[in-house]
Inverse folding.
């Protein structure tokens, strides 16, 4: 199914075990992204490493332990630090500052919270390169100084989708735009959220243009006794903006929704109207139908929504478009549901219409 690693100790020790035990997955990531960077940006792996180094100062300023963890991964996997840095800056290298022909990306993220339901639940399909199924790792990180983190990631990448012992969780949607900065890479911004003890702390780490490229961070937080909520922050080098959520539900896909952020960035998603927007509207329709029918909304509801195949291949449950160039064929690689109120994760590797959710 998925290799599960329990990592503990200092940042360097956590990274070293990640690299050692997950070496095959790290190597798979390196192979995938070497092809992907060439396909999207027409650059060599050497060029990608150089682009990644532009972010090192911002990472060191934010949290030196992140650098130490990436150094540990490189040591454990027997690769260069710059290789691991390039993986963690992969969104900035591949998707931001895009100058070529525009293209589409995937992922559908959903959240429900009071008053729609008693619990705060977030979840998503992660749509990306099918080969990255072989790079997936489930990490249980027991840090000396931060909340315990349970996260699904790609080998070598230290921040992605998950939740922590303080009840803070995050889902992620890529946004393809024409600008970026040398700030904190998106995936390290995700880890910064997961290293937080509260929603306020999480937001403080991603606001004010700290993040190098545009993305959607759907962040949930549950403090117990029904006190939970989720916000959808579109982050960018020009600041953040909250999108929706006033009625107890949130949906985000892969286009910019914020008018204020669109003043600074151009949305480069070529299939925004016939893929991303339709997935967003379909997910909202499914949620609203459940509410109208007064159905109980829970983890089972998410399993049905995330398995939806309406408008395939560009459905919530995403299938590869065989007519697209190979490096642009995206599909659902995994599906995850996190009940933050119960500190529970359900995970399905592959398409949720074909696989089974397992409680983690």
């Amino acid at each position: 199914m998925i290799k599960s690693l329990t990592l503990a100790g200092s940042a360097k020790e956590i990274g070293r075990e990640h690299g050692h035990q997950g070496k095959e997955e790290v190597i798979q990531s390196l192979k995938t992204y070497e092809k992907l960077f060439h396909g999207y940006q027409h650059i060599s792996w050497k060029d990608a490493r150089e682009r990644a180094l532009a972010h090192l100062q911002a990472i060191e300023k934010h949290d030196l332990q992140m650098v130490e963890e990436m150094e540990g991964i490189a040591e454990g996997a027997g690769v260069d630090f710059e290789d691991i840095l390039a993986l963690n800056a992969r969104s900035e290298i591949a998707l931001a500052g895009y100058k070529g022909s525009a293209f589409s990306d995937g992922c559908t993220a959903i959240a429900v919270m009071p008053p729609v339901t008693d619990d705060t639940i977030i979840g998503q399909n992660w749509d990306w390169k099918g080969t990255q199924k072989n790079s997936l790792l489930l990490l249980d990180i027991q840090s000396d100084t931060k909340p315990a983190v349970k996260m699904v990631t790609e080998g070598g990448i230290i921040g992605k989708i998950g939740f922590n012992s303080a009840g803070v969780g995050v889902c992620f949607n890529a946004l393809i735009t024409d600008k970026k900065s040398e700030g904190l890479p998106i995936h390290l911004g995700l880890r910064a959220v997961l290293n937080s003890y509260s929603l306020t702390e999480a937001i403080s780490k991603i606001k004010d243009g700290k993040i190098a490229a545009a993305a959607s961070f759907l962040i949930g937080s549950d403090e117990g006794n029904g006190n939970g909520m989720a916000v959808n922050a579109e982050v960018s080098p020009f600041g953040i903006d909250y999108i929706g959520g006033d009625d107890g539900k949130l949906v985000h896909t892969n286009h910019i929704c914020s008018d204020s952020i669109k003043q600074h960035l151009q949305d480069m998603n070529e299939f925004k109207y016939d893929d991303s927007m339709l997935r967003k509207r379909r997910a909202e329709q499914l949620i609203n139908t459940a509410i109208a029918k007064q159905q109980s909304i829970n983890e089972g509801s998410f399993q049905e929504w995330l398995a939806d195949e309406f408008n395939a291949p560009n459905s919530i449950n995403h299938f590869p478009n065989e007519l697209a160039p190979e490096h642009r064929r995206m599909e659902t690689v995994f599906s995850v549901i996190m009940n933050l109120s119960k500190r529970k994760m359900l995970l399905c590797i592959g398409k949720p219409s074909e696989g089974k959710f397992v409680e983690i």
Remarks:
- The first strand starts at residue 3 and ends at 9.
